[in-house]
């Protein structure tokens, strides 16, 4: 059974895992993200050296930013040192191994195609909700990155005449920001879990904010359905753990479609199967497909 080593580079931690070609995670863990590029390359190199007795097929990396096929990461993130150098080339030279690197949200989408909720599907959109909204476009079973490496940046979609973006009204972060403002709370004192708990206890502010949140989330999903016409739209991020998420989105979609009489295609929505290990698994699947 072929084995791969995967790294998921985040702003706080670098996650890592030894993964088989059947998507089985043999072992995994995490280390604090280094403050320099040299520190990151050394972390990867030192971790690889622990597996000298194993015939690894290669290294798969998930990273923030717009990742080119050459291995250069454009855009910006919480790790400025990632942007500019050819990360793929640097890791390959230091480890003398084949390297695959891809955007983290794209990796999450690839994981679902490989062995998750989208297995066997051809045209899929994965929407990842967090501080903002990102995601991935799967076309004919493969990742579609777009002409400017911005395929899947759904959060930039403008939702009203004030140029408010989808991230600004339907990300989990937007919900928290909205309730914080309504209640006059100190920034950082509320989060999504607290807001949903308060709503369950009957808090009117939270109930109204969540209602609006679900409407705007459904409106964006409706737009995506008619832009791309996928067979499946997946929802990822921490909020996808809520059992009532899809039901609430569908309720809002029903109202939208009742208002738009010409619309007959109802979006097919499911939650992502993978959460904390999605980026690691997707990076490995990307490596396998490329090689």
Automatic annotation (TrEMBL):
InterPro entries, per database record: ATPase_NBD, ROK
Pfam annotation, one family: ROK
Gene3D superfamilies attached to this UniProt entry: 3.30.420.40
Similarity comment: Belongs to the ROK (NagC/XylR) family.
PANTHER family on file: ROK (REPRESSOR, ORF, KINASE) FAMILY, SUGAR KINASE
Name of the featured protein: ROK family protein
Gene source species: Aquibacillus halophilus
């Amino acid at each position: 059974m072929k084995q791969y080593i995967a790294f998921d580079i985040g702003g706080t931690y670098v996650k890592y895992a030894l993964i088989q070609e059947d998507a089985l995670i043999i072992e995994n863990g995490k280390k604090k993200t280094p403050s320099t590029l040299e520190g990151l390359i050394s972390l990867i190199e030192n971790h690889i050296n622990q597996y000298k007795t194993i015939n690894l097929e290669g290294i798969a990396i998930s990273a923030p930013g717009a990742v080119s096929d050459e291995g250069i990461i454009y855009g910006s993130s919480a790790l400025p040192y990632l942007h500019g150098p050819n990360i793929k080339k640097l890791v390959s030279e230091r480890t003398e191994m084949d390297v695959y690197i891809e955007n983290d949200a794209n990796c999450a989408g690839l994981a679902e195609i490989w062995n998750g909720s989208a297995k066997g599907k051809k045209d899929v959109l994965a929407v990842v909700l967090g501080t903002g909204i990102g995601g991935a476009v799967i076309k004919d079973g493969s990742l579609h990155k777009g002409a400017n490496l911005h395929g899947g940046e759904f959060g930039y979609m403008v939702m009203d005449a004030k140029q408010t973006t989808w991230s600004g009204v339907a990300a989990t972060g937007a919900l928290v920001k909205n309730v914080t403002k309504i209640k006059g709370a100190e920034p950082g004192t509320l989060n999504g879990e607290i807001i949903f708990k308060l709503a369950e206890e009957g808090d009117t502010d939270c109930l109204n904010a969540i209602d609006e949140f679900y409407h705007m989330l459904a409106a964006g999903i409706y737009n995506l359905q008619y832009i791309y016409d996928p067979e499946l739209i997946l929802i990822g991020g921490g909020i996808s753990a809520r059992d009532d998420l899809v039901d609430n989105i569908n309720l809002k979609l029903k109202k939208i479609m009742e208002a738009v009489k010409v619309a007959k295609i109802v979006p097919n929505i499911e939650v992502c199967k993978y959460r904390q290990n999605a980026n690691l698994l997707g990076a490995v699947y990307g490596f396998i497909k490329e090689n």
